[in-house]
Amino acid sequence: MKASLYLISLIALAGCSTQQPAKDGTLTLKDALGKHEILAGVAVNVDEVAGRVPKAQDVITANFSSIVAENCMKQEKIVPEQDKYFFDDADSLVAFGERNGMKVIGHCLVWHSQAAPWFFTDAKGGEVSRDTLISRMKNHISTVVGRYKGRIYGWDVVNEAIEDDGSYRQTPYYKIIGPEYIEIALKAAEEADPDAELYLNDFSMSKPGKRDKYVELVKDLKLKGCRIDAIGMQSHNGGDYPDLSEYEKSMDTFAACGVKVMMTELDLNILPKPEDFGGGANVGDEFKYRDELDPYKDGLDEQAQKLFDDRYLAFFKIYEKHKEQISRITLWGVSDKTSWLNDWPVEGRTSYPLLFDRDYNAKPVVQKIIELF
Ligand code: G3I
Q: Which of 102, 130, 174, 286 sits at 20 to 30 Å (Cα–Cα) from 303?
């Protein structure tokens, strides 16, 4: 009995030879998820990539098999003025990923938010024409995707195109070009790098209206000859949202359309919610700071810590159950210290949404996630 178990273990180890434990023998997140061919991803910032944050690079390379730029590939950063590209930060990030054998994800090509200020405006300051916007969008995609051809594993091609109720978000792309902008963007990205994976990415993907619209979109875009490799469920989660069964349902429903599912921006905000806060991740949502919305300035209390651990485990149990459908799970940041959730939707709070604390130490729940997988 023992001998056969030993044999099975050996066979299992041989089968995952690309995922070796860390040098000291301990398994990390990327080993555990890698066993199931799931990339363990993380969003990184410019300071981390440049080595200006003590410990960050070691934590990133030891625990993750994929990186994505939290900000430096966004349009406003890459091309702040017409025809004036700034690629230094993005180049460094891609090189960092390559040096460390990580899959680099590109984020993002078409997004109404953080668009370059000139992008939707003509020379006279009026709204750009449809033809011009199509041409600018295609040019942006071919320039950026083309620059990293063969080096970026997959692109968030269109980000946050749909509202929670399933209607098209009224972005300048939609209003000026019409819904075809998504098809045009996907085709331009595929043309610029036929080997890169292509994704549609959005938050609040457990909302039924949004889910149904993405299903309709995927089917329709495929009929029009577009390739979509995966749907990105951003997964900016909270202590009591999303509803877990709706979240699972979205995973099943997207997978049934013949695409992979990815958790592309996972984090967990357990701070008190301002009244009228509807969840999601609309960058523009803002609520006034009040002391009672910021109760853990010196650390989580026992109850909050338990909520954090239980909730993270609940999500990872779902991921384990659906592991065949998932190709990547990306955390939206390495350490609590730099998470966007310290400033959103209320500026200046102390938030604890990620898997590594403010000193870049793994939280206890990380080991539990590893054991789960
Ligand atoms: O870099 C400047 C700095 O020079 C300046 O002093 C400072 C003052 O506000 O701002 C800094 O830029 C900020 C940048 O993050 C870097 O920290 C921007 O104001 C701020 O708007 C920006 O926020 C980012 C946000 O997207 C908007 O681009 C967050 O870091 C980033 O986590 C967030 O990520 C988005 C995904 O791309 C799409 N899905 C939702 C997700 C969360 O909003």
A: 286
